[in-house]
Amino acid sequence: MTELWHRVEYGMNPDPKRLGTLDELLTTLDTLFEGGSDWTTREQSTHWQSIFSQPEHPLNSDLPDANLTEWQARGLLPNPASRTALDLGCGLGRNARWLARQGYRVTGLDLSAYAVAEAQRRTADLTVTYLEADLLRGPLPLPPADLVYDSGCFHHLPPHRRLTYLSVLGRLLKPGGHFGICTFAPGRMGSEATDVELLRRGSLEGGVAYSPDDLRGIFSDLDYVAGGPMPQLAGTFCHDFLNVALFRRPAG
Q1: What is the pLDDT of residues 170-223, one digit of tens each?
Q2: 115-140: per-residue pLDDT in tens?
């Protein structure tokens, strides 16, 4: 992962005749998922608006993820005093608001202009910075954070864009900082097809499922702290089709 953090750059030729860089390869592979399967591009912002504007949709919630509250209760999250937090794919800001109430200085990122505007409206009583931004294709002029959290963004990435994600995470997470993630769980929700199958089909089938071992392998450059099925706690956002994991970046 460390090498990749320094290799991915933005702004290369999106349609090269001959591939010469990693970024050109990744951008070319993006075309395999054109037509609506990849929901992590700006072109799909209307897809997210249709979801977030549904009053009964589970993501139209103000409750924080259950694992966040559990990790805090167990003392696993960094002390929020003078600490920064970054919420990737923040949606309507439910986790960003919870983090702000704990004392973090929070920035929420989302590629949906609708989500950012609605998150700002719902955060009138708190100080949270919301940015409309493309996490994968940048630029992201943000300083590294003490806590980076992703609830439901990662499992919508095409397989090849995990490389970009790891690169971005390497720049956004401080040494000694914590990274938390929530994804679809195998056997409960999301595709269990191999990466080769997904690339051949040019479809993510609604999202990719990750087991706890998958997450530990993908983020192997980080120290594993906790994880497993999302805990089921009253008064929180909790679904049994989700897995969660918490990691810490080595300080050295």
Answers
A1: 999 999 999 999 999 999 999 999 999 999 999 998 899 999 999 999 999 999
A2: 999 999 999 989 999 999 988 887 78
Q: Has residue 14 got a pLDDT over 70?
A: no
Among candidates 126, 212, 160, which has minimal Cα distance to 38?
A: 160
- Under 8 Å CB-to-CB from 193, ≥6 apart: which residues? 201, 205
185's enclosing H/E stretch is none
Q: Which pTM was predicted?
A: 0.90
What is the amino acid identity at position 73? A
Exposed/middle/buried for residue 221 (C-beta within 10 Å: 0-12, 13-18, 19+): middle
Peptide bond into 250 cis (omega under 30): no
Residue 10 has pLDDT above 60, yes or no: no
Q: Which two tokens stand for residue 21?
A: 């860089």
- DSSP E strands in 80-156: the ranges are 84-88, 105-110, 128-132, 145-151
Under DSSP, the state recorded for 77 is S
Residue pair 97/90 in contact (Cβ under 8 Å)? The answer is: no
Identify the H or E element spanning 35: none
Q: Which residue has the tokens 């923040």?
A: 90
Among residues 252, 179, 174, 188, the alpha carbon closest in space to that of 218 is found at 179
Distance (Å, whole) CA 68 – CA 101: 13
- Residue 175's φ and ψ, nearest 5 degrees, are -55, 130
Pair of tokens at residue 189: 């929700």
CB atoms within 10 A of CB 233: 16
Q: What share of the chain is helix, strand, coil (3-state, %, to 5)?
A: 35, 20, 45
